[in-house]
Amino acid sequence: MTKSTLIASASAVALLAITSCESTEEVTNPEEQVVEVQESMDDMAEMNEDDTYRVLLEEWTGPYGGVPPFDKVEVSMFQPALEAAIESAQAEIDAIASQTAAPTFDNTILAMEEAGGELDRVGTIYGIYASGLSSPDVQEVQREMAPKLAAFSDAIYQNKALYDRIEAIYNGDAYDALTPEQQRLVWDYYTDFTRAGAGLDDADKARVAEINQQLASLYTTFSNNLLHDEEAYVTWLTEDQISGLPESVVSAAESAAESRDNEGGKYAILNTRSSMDPFLTYSDNRELREEVWRTYYNRGDNGDAYDNNKVIADIMKLRAERSKILGYDNYASWSIEKAVAKTPDAAMELMMKVWPAAKAKVGEEVAAMQEVADAEGADITIAPWDYRYYAEKVRQADYDFDSEEVKQYLQLEKLREGMFWMAGELYGFEFKPVEDVPVFHEDVRVWEVLRDGKHVGLWYFDPYARSGKRSGAWMNAYRSQNNIDGFTTPIVSNNSNFVEGSPGEPILISWDDATTLFHEFGHALHGLNSNVTYPSLAGTAVPRDYVEFPSQVHEHWLPTPEILQRFALNVETGEPIPEELVEKIERAANARQGFDTTEYLASALVDMKLHTMTDFSDFDADTFERETLVELDMPEELPMRHRLPQFSHVFSGEGYAAGYYAYLWADTFSADAWEAFEEAGGPYDAETAAKFRKWILSVGNTIDPSEAYVEFRGHAPDTNALMRDRGFPVPGEATKDDGGSDN
Questions:
Q1: Contacts of 452 (CB under 8 A, 6+ apart)
Q2: Contact 471, 131 (CB under 8 A)
Q3: Which residues belong to the active site?
Q4: pLDDT of residue 260
Q5: Domains of the chain, CATH where assigned
Q6: In this structure, is the dihedral angle defined by the CA atoms of residues 178, 183, 187 and 189, taken in order, positive or negative?
Q7: 461 near 444, Cβ under 8 Å?
Q8: How far, in Å, CA of 426 to CA of 408, rounded?
Q9: Distance of CA 588 to CAs 4, 406, 739, 742, Å?
Q10: Could you read off the pLDDT of 255-299 as tens digits, one per residue?
Q11: What tens digit of pLDDT does each residue of 508-524 get?
């Protein structure tokens, strides 16, 4: 059983969960948890006489080393399949733990890597449905399964016999004879078991297990509430309320209305970032801008049955208690221990280095916007719902940059082709469309990935928004690469939420969305380039503050001339984007960097400050957020990117809890790595790309990420590269001229 399966058994599945669920009953110890799961499975066996659900447990068959059997999936299969998989996995773990033979790498660590295949397979498909097709029936399964999966994870991590075997290997004489990759895997298992409480006494183990079950339910509830507010609130527009909106935005609003059967009018602004952002950028109606802004930023904070403030308070109390039991000063210290940053102080130091420069940039941006508003006689003071609108006006005035003009050259399908071309130039990949594999929704398309004519993996693309699909953009690994029994190829997916237009109509996206597209594809390339032995160390299974590095550096290839001249083609004429427009993009690259960096950093700083607290006896999330932003001297003209009641990175699971700083930390690596390409002669330098693939993309977590980076770059990342990349001043260096005005 890979470690990713253990993690998915608890918080990662909860992260995808989008249903409401009540608190679970108290459980006295991990063994009783397994008994409860078994009793539930017995009940399910009586209710489900047929065993068609077993198709979700079977080895994947078909081409390309086997593919997920999406054509055979029925939602009613998930619960019995998950429970059967838990039973099977538990039996395999019990067999490993109860061996009489002395513990060795093969009979313990390798055996765990190879166990739990059924749970891997059904869990993968279950997670895809939870994030992409979350119907009421799926939500009911999630409500039932979140605490059971958490209980199963605890039963393994708190298995003393199993922990003793892992500890004996880690501290034994034979450890030195293992390969470096094997040593890394043993260390990873030992550290995670220790951090999960494997060495605690029975009473503390029982309490940690109880907390984990309660958290799994709370994470599900948080996600439910947020999804409700994203789907329940729509701003309906009439013909006289679309003033200022470009044709593409109007068309998207019309399509959104049609997707809801035009129940409130001809045009709909959905309560998602992809719908909110362009409306706030272009709408001339200030009252409507404020309405859309407040609706979006009040998600999970409406004082109703779906309000998340009490959920957050309960989560934080439990996290603090568990951290104390496990021997840590606070949750952040526990969370960051295995990360590259290692300590909360190190993460805070980097953030506070950037924070003053970001705020100063906001001041410059607001002054320029206020000047435009005054010149127009608007008689307003710039407010948060004005920022995007007037920032766009400033960008047009100072840089002669029109986002809508650029958008005419950014066709989704052409950019996808551009990503494929980039991957071919850098890593020798070829993408071949295939239609001989089942998909979970008609929107999904599949490509085979080859190198030198040989099969490397599969890439699934799910680009469009729909009801039941989580917002945002993300990458999934359906199957991780490994070399245990020959080369097992990876299967990865990219998922977005673009609004689908009329049939045959090209989908035009913003420059920011194009950047995100390349970012997420960077995650996919991380998975596709993986070449390690053990799945627990493969692909993106690296520390949270490092995993964003490969994805963020790939954003830099979007504005290269090689991409733009081939794939940024005018939707009407097919002509490539003019050089003068490319120059405008380059000059305006950091035009809104104050906003972008400050809104992000505010969320990252609040996240870190929250998770270094220990006393949550009288905690109120809204009050904490407000007071912390005052303490940070947050500019009042913009919000934090993710307010606490909607901060799914942090409260729908534990993936980014005390870890939202990771994007900035990883960006120090990506900015410095990009300078390596520039120093070598350009973005497509073959030697640099080969080193990047060898030391960053292919090695997974087989060596310490900091050591891997030094092998690639020759030195640790230069944090000043981050400042240069964002156009912020670096002491002792001249500020790069961005070509804009002094405003």
A1: 428
A2: no
A3: 520
A4: 87
A5: 3-227 (1.10.1370.40), 233-297 (no CATH)
A6: negative
A7: yes
A8: 27
A9: 41, 12, 8, 13
A10: 999 988 888 889 999 999 889 999 999 999 999 999 999 999 999
A11: 999 989 999 999 999 99
